[in-house]
Write a structure and sequence with these properties.
The structure is a homodimer of 204-residue chains.
Chain A lengths: L2 H7 L12 H21 L2 H7 L4 H7 L3 H12 L15 H10 L7 H13 L1 H28 L9 H4 L2 H12 L6 H16 L4
Helix pairs in contact in A: 2-3, 2-5, 2-7, 5-8, 6-11, 7-8, 10-11
Chain A binds a DNA duplex (30 and 30 nucleotides) through α3 and α4.
DNA sequence: TAGTTCCGAAACCCCCCAGTATCGTTGACG
DNA sequence: CGTCAACGATACTGGGGGGTTTCGGAACTA
C-alpha cells in the first residue's frame, strides 16, 4: 500500500471525481497498438488519446511526456520477459525451444519491437527499455536453455554458448525488422531444426 | 554519349554558367555521412546542403525530394553490392568468408544501414533500395558462397542453404542495428568459426 | 558588355505534432 | 445540493523541418 492510498483511506478522501484507473490500461493498450501499427513516430499523442477514448489532458495527467508513456506501455504491456523459471525442463532442447514459441505466453510482440526501432537511436530511455525487453532477456533465456541442455549432456562440448545464444533472437529480429518478412511458425520451426539444433547437438 | 552531351557538343552550348557536376558527389557524400551519424530523420536537408558547401536550392535542383536524394546516396554511394564474381574461389569456405570481410572492398556501411532503418517502415522507395542493397545482395552472396563450397564437397549434404545463408547477415545486422553493439573483426571471425562453419562443414 | 544560367545564403511558407490551457460536463463526497 | 477534481473535447502555442522563392554574385556565351 502506498502512502497516497493510505492517505485516501485514513485521512479524509479529497472531494471531487476520482481518477478512473481503468483509463491507464486503455491508454497503454492504445499506445501499444499504434506503436505496432505505425511505429513510434506515427504514434501521435492525439491518436493514442482518441483510440483510448480519452482526452489528451487525461494522458498527460498520467505521464509527463510521450517517451515516459511509451516506456510504460512497453514494460507494463508486454509483461515481464520470459525466463527459464517459466519453462519446466522438458528433457530435450528441442522441446524446450518449442515451448518458448508455442507455450501459453503473451502474443507475438515483434511488431512493437519493430515499431520501437526508430525511437531507439535518438532516445536513451527508450533504448534502455528496448534493450532490456527485447534483447537482453531473450539472449539470456536462450543461454539458460542451452546451459540446461549442456548439463543434460545434449550438447557438444565445444559450443560457444554466448555466440549461439544470440543466433535465434538475431534471426527472428532480422527477419521481422530488417528483412520485413513474417515470422510464422514454419520459419521458427525450420530455424530450430535446421540451424540451432544442428549447431549445438552432440548427435550426428 | 548521351543525347544531352551530344547536344552540348554539336549544337551550340546554351549560354550561362554550367552546372558543377562535382557538387553531386559532394552532396551525396554529405548525405551518407549524416545518414550514418544521425539517421534518416536527423539528416535535415539544411545540414546536407551545409556540409556539402552548397545551398538548398542546389540540392533541390538535382533531386526532387529528400527521399529521391537518399535513394541515390545509398545506391550510388555504397556502390554495387558485392557478388560472387568479385570473390575468386580460394578453395575453402573459411577463406572465402574471410575475403568478404577483409577483402579490398568499400568501407563498412552498417552505420548507413542502421540510419536507414527508421525510414524503411514508412517509405516504400527507401524500403526497396534498402532491401536490395543491404538484404537481398548479402543473402545471395552467402548463398552463392555456400553453393560453391558444396560443389567442392566441403559441406554436409543435409544443409538448409536458404536458411543458413541468412545467418551471418542476420547476426551482423542484429548486433549493429538491434543490439546496438560494434561489429568488429573479433566478432565476425568468432561468428564464422563458431557458428557458420560448424553449422555447414562436413568435417567433425 | 549584354544576356543567360548556376551558385550560396537566407528568408519564407506550410504542415505536423508535442505539450498546454480552457471549456463545459460528470461523478464522488459532505 | 454545493464543492471540487477528473473527464472529453478542442483551441492554442512553439519548435522543427521539408520544400520554395528571392537575391546578389559568379561563370559562361555571344
Amino acid at each position: 500500500m502506498t502512502s497516497a492510498q493510505a492517505a485516501d483511506d485514513v485521512v479524509a478522501r479529497r472531494a471531487g471525481r476520482r481518477r478512473d484507473d481503468s483509463k491507464d490500461d486503455a491508454i497503454l493498450l492504445a499506445a501499444r497498438e499504434l506503436l505496432a501499427e505505425r511505429g513510434f513516430d506515427g504514434m501521435t499523442m492525439d491518436a493514442v488519446a482518441a483510440r483510448a477514448g480519452a482526452g489528451k489532458a487525461t494522458v498527460y495527467r498520467r505521464w509527463a511526456s510521450k517517451v515516459e508513456m511509451t516506456v510504460d506501455a512497453v514494460t507494463c504491456g508486454t509483461g515481464v520477459p520470459l525466463t527459464i523459471e517459466d519453462l519446466p525442463d522438458t528433457g530435450s532442447l528441442r522441446d524446450d525451444l518449442m515451448a518458448v514459441r508455442f507455450g501459453r505466453h503473451r502474443p507475438d510482440d515483434t511488431e512493437i519491437m519493430s515499431g520501437l526501432m526508430s525511437a531507439v537511436r535518438e532516445n536513451p530511455e527508450v533504448a534502455s527499455v528496448f534493450h532490456a525487453q527485447f534483447v537482453r532477456s531473450r539472449i539470456t533465456l536462450m543461454r539458460d536453455l542451452l546451459e540446461r541442455a549442456r548439463l543434460r549432456g545434449e550438447l557438444r562440448d565445444d559450443v560457444d554458448l554466448d555466440m549461439v545464444a544470440s543466433v535465434a533472437p538475431a534471426m527472428i529480429a532480422y527477419r521481422k525488422v530488417v528483412a520485413g518478412q513474417r515470422v510464422d511458425d514454419d520459419f521458427v520451426v525450420r530455424m530450430i531444426d535446421n540451424v540451432i539444433l544442428p549447431l549445438v547437438l552432440d548427435v550426428r
